[in-house]
Amino acid sequence: MQNLSERDFLLQVLRGDQYAVAFCETLFSLSQVLDDLVDGDKPVGSTTVVNSFWDALIELPANPFYRMHEQYLRPQMAVALQDWRDSMVLERQPDVHARTLAFVMRDQLTGIVSQAAYLVGGRDWMQEVSPQIRLYFHDESLSDYLTSLMPEVPATDLDLVAPSDNTASGEDADEEEQS
Question: Do residues 55 and 29 make contact, with C-beta atoms less than 8 angstroms apart?
Fold first, then answer.
């Protein structure tokens, strides 16, 4: 199945639903830009950033598949983003267990593809294609991943962990001080 292009694979497991495929492709693109920005391992131009904001704020919410299934997709998207964030912290820890957890957690978008398969084809369809989805998108081995990690960089140096993080209230610490 790895011989198929990503688009052809998505068309297959999402039963040809063009909007479901576009939804997944948009998420993948956004997640790659975010990862490149945070990792700093690939330059990201201003046009790419602006286009990504457009996709996140305009295209994704307007996608008919997303609009129809938002109540099922958005919570899973939130968990996938938090899992990715946690993986960024864990992969910078010195112990192998934390780094192994990071490997498992870093790309939970595959769970969203499985959920999309359920939404287009029901439980039986999702159960049939979900293992294929996982194998297709998780093609890197744990040993290759662990070998590729950069030297330990404290997560606090990446601004991913802040002791007074008030994101639940939607306020920055700087805004609180000014109030």
Answer: yes
Contact (Cβ atoms closer than 8 angstroms) between residue 15 and residue 120: yes
The string of pLDDT tens digits covering residues 159-178 is 665 444 444 544 444 444 44
Residue 71 to residue 68: CA distance in whole angstroms: 8
CB < 8 Å & 24+ apart, contacts of 53-59: 55/26, 55/29, 55/30, 56/30, 59/26
Give the structural domain span for 107.
6-151
Q: How many residues does the chain have?
A: 179
What are 171's two structure tokens? Answer: 């306020």
CA–CA distances in Å: residue 113 to residues 83, 147, 150, 161: 16, 27, 29, 28
Is 165 inside a domain boundary? Answer: no
Mean of pLDDT values over 76-99? 91
Mind listing the pLDDT tens digit for each residue in 6-36? 999 999 999 999 999 999 999 999 999 999 9
pTM of model > 0.85: no
In a domain, 159, yes or no: no
The fraction of the chain above a pLDDT of 90, given in percent, is 60
User: What is the total count of domains within the chain?
Assistant: 1
The position carrying tokens 């040809």 is 16
Burial 137-174 (b: 16+ CB within 10 A, else e): eeeeeeeebeeeeeeeeebeeeeeeeeeeeeeeeeeee
